[in-house]
Design the sequence.
C-alpha cells in the first residue's frame, strides 16, 4: 500500500473511531457505512449525564450558543459578513460543502476567513475531527461527508440569524 493510501486509510479509521465514540457504540457494532435500521432501545431513552449522545434540542442550543459567540467577534457594521452568512446555505446546497469551503479558503478577505473558521471549528468539534475542515472533507467517505454537510447547514442557520440580527440592529434608521 502506498504511503498516501495508507495515510488516507488511517484517517478514515480515525474518523470512524471518533464517530463510534460519539455515538457510544462499540467497535463490534455495525460498521458506520451501513446504517442500523433498528437502533437499540437505549438510544430512545433520555441519555444519562455520562453519555456522549446529545438530544436534538440540546444540540440545537449548543449550535445557537456557538454561533452567538462567533457573531460577537464580528464588527456590527460588517455588511459583507452578513451577506455571506445569508448566502452560505445556498452555496453549500448548490455547489457542495467541499467546493464552498474551497471558495471561502481561496478568498483573502476577512469575512470569508471568519466564516470559514467559524464553520470549520464547529463541524470539526461535532464530528471529532482535527485540523482544517476542508482537508478532512476531502478525505472522508460519503456518509461522513453527508453528516458534515447537514451539520454545516444546521449551524449556518443560526449563524445567519444572528448575523442578520446584529448587523440590522446597527443599520436601523428611523423612517
Sequence:
Amino acid at each position: 500500500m502506498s504511503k498516501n493510501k495508507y495515510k488516507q486509510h488511517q484517517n478514515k479509521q480515525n474518523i470512524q473511531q471518533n464517530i463510534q465514540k460519539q455515538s457510544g457504540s462499540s467497535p463490534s457494532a455495525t460498521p458506520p457505512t451501513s446504517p442500523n435500521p433498528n437502533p437499540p432501545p437505549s438510544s430512545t431513552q433520555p441519555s444519562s449525564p455520562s453519555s456522549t449522545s446529545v438530544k436534538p434540542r440540546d444540540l440545537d442550543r449548543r449550535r445557537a450558543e456557538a454561533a452567538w459567540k462567533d457573531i460577537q467577534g464580528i464588527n456590527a457594521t460588517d455588511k459583507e459578513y452578513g451577506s455571506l452568512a445569508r448566502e452560505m446555505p445556498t452555496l453549500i446546497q448548490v455547489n457542495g460543502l467541499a467546493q464552498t469551503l474551497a471558495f471561502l479558503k481561496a478568498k483573502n478577505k476577512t469575512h470569508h476567513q471568519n466564516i470559514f473558521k467559524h464553520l470549520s471549528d464547529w463541524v470539526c468539534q461535532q464530528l471529532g475531527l482535527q485540523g482544517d475542515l476542508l482537508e478532512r472533507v476531502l478525505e472522508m467517505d460519503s456518509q461522513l461527508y453527508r453528516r458534515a454537510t447537514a451539520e454545516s447547514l444546521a449551524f449556518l442557520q443560526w449563524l445567519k440569524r444572528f448575523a442578520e440580527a446584529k448587523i440590522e440592529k446597527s443599520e436601523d434608521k428611523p423612517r
